[in-house]
Amino acid sequence: MFEGYFLYWGAVWDVLPKMAKGLLITLEIGVMSIALGLGVGVAGALARNSSRRAVATAALVYVEIMRNSPSLVKMYFIYFGLPSLGIYPGPLLSAVAALVLHNGAYMTEIVRGGLAAIPRTQVLAARSLGMGTWTTFQVVILPQAFDNVLPSLSNNWVEIVKDTSLTGALSVREFFHVVEEQISATLRSFEFLTVAAVVYLVLTASLSGALRTAEARIKYRR
């Protein structure tokens, strides 16, 4: 009891199935955003390093626009703005697209830094073994670059998991949206927000721990 407020955790217990379903949607959004964002990041890094000036400039413009605008604005633009052009993406697609575009820009610069750190001698050695350009990139350059940038990518991926909570603004029934609904229905803010904080802490800590383990194995392998 806090100044007349009586804690009632039964309110949380009663809606655990709904919260669990929302959590699954949160995980779905997070996994898709990380995977697709990484793909955008690799493609963007290659475009930024392109010898074609128009391609490199377009990639730079993309990075600057995405990094200097909020994720929530992108979600609203895709979900509410594109219908004006006759394009009608659903709330889940709009949310994932916004997160992918936003974080793909950050991953573009992260991956580009990793690629720049690969010594030129690695490329020359691969060429001397008869490897083509794509094989060299796929087998020699990209794995080493990924190892180098994993700590930076880890930070970005944790941010993606936390940013999934923004997708509730589009009425995506992810975990935090369910929490907000239950707070409105029961007025049990403290209980539900406490549970939400613990759940996000567990999610981000688990992801961080798994990635630290991966980093340790990479260092050991070296």
Q: Give the ordered list of helices and strands.
A: HHHHHHHHH
Q: Count helical runs.
A: 9
Number of domains: 1
The overall pLDDT, averaged over residues, is 91
Q: Overview of this structure, please?
A:
This protein has 222 residues and is mostly helical. It has one domain (10-221): MetI-like fold, CATH 1.10.3720.10. It contains nine helices and no strands. It is globular and about 75 Å long. The model has no long low-confidence stretch (mean pLDDT 91).
What keywords describe this structure?
MetI-like fold; 222 residues; mainly alpha; 9 helices
Question: Helices and strands in order, then pairings?
Answer:
Layout: H1 10-14, H2 16-48, H3 53-67, H4 71-81, H5 91-116, H6 120-128, H7 133-163, H8 175-186, H9 189-221
Short description:
This protein has 222 residues and is mainly alpha-helical. The protein has nine helices and no strands. It has one domain: MetI-like (MetI-like fold, Orthogonal Bundle), CATH 1.10.3720.10.
